[in-house]
Structures are given as structure tokens and as C-alpha cells.
Write a structure and sequence with these properties.
By secondary structure, this protein is mainly α. About 65% of the residues lie in helices and about 5% in strands. The chain has 15 helices and four strands. The protein has a two-stranded antiparallel sheet. A two-stranded antiparallel ribbon has the order 3-4. Strand 3 and strand 4 form a beta hairpin.
């Protein structure tokens, strides 16, 4: 299972979030101030250190959390490609703001139950993304490990569980509120799924993040000679034809509500990649 084409093609919002997460997390780690991340009851209700809310949205408190978090954010870019950057930006803002409000309320009501601090990081966005992952991403393969029946989606769930319990209840609470917020979005609470960001703002994300990759791309292009391009073109011509769509893949897409002709066409275009085919059909349906 994959999240579609490699890189951040058609996913500028996800790219911006990944870059911001790394830029917020690494400086705290280098200075040894990772323990100062997150926010507590005293920070919000007594000291009014509201700046901690901003850092808690992006910066992870440890390197393992950063690794698992970035991997999940990178994979979930598939949803931005499905619904478009305009709507995905609204999904990001909705999941972060609503989940943050829930966390602040939880600190106020659960302070007597030893919940004194919540960890930092984009837990709300990551775990809100597990809701469409559960409902919209089909299983493309199943396998068995000893007595356990697993699928290609199991690895994403395992990475999510690792991140969810990485800091005990300090990370469990933000994760749960992220899932709840994802359910609110899916249920179209307040008609949120109708809203989308203007094209001018989404293009701003693309322009901002392109500066981080423009120089490296320019250095790579001169070394890519004409002979290499011709060799790659010849290699592509030698790739054997892919077999037609299988009945199982067609049945999976049709069970998701797509008609047979559209499912057949999507599987042919994506060379029988079930995940890419479903993403293509969902994206087409959204537009």
C-alpha cells in the first residue's frame, strides 16, 4: 500500500505542515528544551502562556515521535490529493482548532485526575486523518503472521498506536480528541465540508515550500544528461504490459459505490493499483 505518487506532488499543504513540524521540533531538541514543550493547566489557566498552544500544534517532544509523526503525515497526503488542497486546508484548521479547544477543556475538568500536562505535536491532525483512512482507503492485500490476520493497512495502524501511547495519557488525550474531531468533520458538523480555502491562499503554501526544494532541484538537473534521459525512455518502452483489472479489484471499487465502467477505467489508468484507483475516483467525484 502506498499514498500515491512519491513526493509532495499536489500536496502543498501537507508539505508546509511537514516542514513546519521539522523546523519547530529540531531547534528545541538541539537546545535540550524538548521537555518544555506541551502545555499544562498552570500554563493556560494561571500563567496565560498562550504561545505554548502554537508550539504544541507543530513541535514533537522527542525524536521517535517526530519520526513516526512525519511518516504518518507524509502518508496521509493522499487525502489532500483526494479532496483538493483548498478543502484539505480547512480540514487541517478544523481538526487543529477544535481538538485544541477540547484539550484545553480537558485540562480544566481533569486536573484532579493527575492530568497535569499534555504533550505537543500535530496529534490532532494525524489522528483526525485516521477517520478517512479507516472509511475511504480500501484493503488491497491481506496476509497472516502466526495466528494474526493482517492487511497492508495494519502497518499504518501500528505506527499510529506507537505514536498514540508514546507519552502515556499525555499523548493519549490529544490523539483521542483528534479522532473525535475527524468524526465531526466526516459527519459534516456545521456544514464544514462545504468550505474551502481560496486558491490564492493555497498557492501561497505552494510558493512558500517550493523555496526549500528549488535550489536542490536546480543542482540535480544539470547532471541529468541527454544520454541518461534517452536510456530511461528506452527502459520505459521495454516495460511489459500490465494485465487487465482483476474481478476482486473491480468488486472492491464497486462496493465503494463506483460504477463498473469508472472502476475499470481507473484501474487501467493506475495499472491495477487499487489505492491509486480509489484515490483517482474519489478525487474525480469531489470535483
Amino acid at each position: 500500500m502506498n499514498g500515491g505518487p512519491s513526493g509532495f506532488h499536489n500536496a502543498p499543504v501537507t508539505k508546509t505542515i511537514v516542514i513546519c513540524t521539522a523546523l519547530f521540533t529540531i531547534p528545541f531538541g538541539i537546545r535540550g528544551q524538548s521537555k518544555n514543550l506541551g502545555f499544562s493547566y498552570q500554563d493556560i489557566y494561571e500563567k496565560l502562556n498562550l504561545w505554548r498552544l502554537i508550539s504544541s500544534v507543530f513541535a514533537f517532544a522527542s525524536t521517535p515521535e517526530l519520526i513516526f509523526g512525519l511518516c504518518l503525515l507524509y502518508y496521509f497526503r493522499v487525502f489532500e490529493r483526494q479532496i483538493g488542497s483548498n478543502k484539505y486546508a480547512v480540514f487541517v484548521a478544523f481538526s487543529m482548532i477544535i481538538s485544541l479547544l477540547f484539550q484545553i477543556l480537558a485540562l480544566g475538568y481533569l486536573k484532579d485526575f493527575s492530568l497535569t500536562k499534555l504533550t505537543s505535536g500535530p496529534y490532532s491532525l494525524i489522528f483526525a486523518s485516521f477517520v478517512p483512512f479507516f472509511f475511504d482507503i480500501p484493503i488491497s492485500s491481506k496476509f497472516r503472521v502466526f495466528t494474526l490476520n493482517l492487511s497492508d493497512k495494519s502497518f499504518i495502524y501500528l505506527a499510529g498506536l506507537q505514536l498514540l501511547f508514546s507519552s502515556g495519557k499525555q499523548s493519549l488525550v490529544p490523539g483521542i480528541f483528534g479522532i473525535i474531531t475527524g468524526c465531526f468533520y466526516r459527519l459534516n458538523t456545521f456544514g464544514i465540508r462545504r468550505f474551502k480555502l481560496p486558491d490564492t491562499l493555497t498557492s501561497l503554501f505552494s510558493n512558500m515550500t517550493s523555496r526549500f526544494t528549488r535550489n536542490s532541484s536546480a543542482q540535480l538537473l544539470p547532471s541529468y544528461s541527454t544520454q541518461q534521459r534517452e536510456t530511461n525512455h528506452q527502459t520505459e518502452e521495454m516495460v511489459p504490459l500490465v494485465e487487465g483489472p482483476t474481478d476482486e479489484s473491480l468488486a472492491t471499487l464497486m462496493s465503494m459505490g463506483f460504477d463498473r465502467d469508472s472502476a475499470m477505467q481507473a484501474l487501467v489508468i493506475t495499472q491495477n493499483d487499487l489505492n491509486l484507483a480509489s484515490s483517482l475516483l474519489l478525487e474525480t467525484q469531489a470535483h
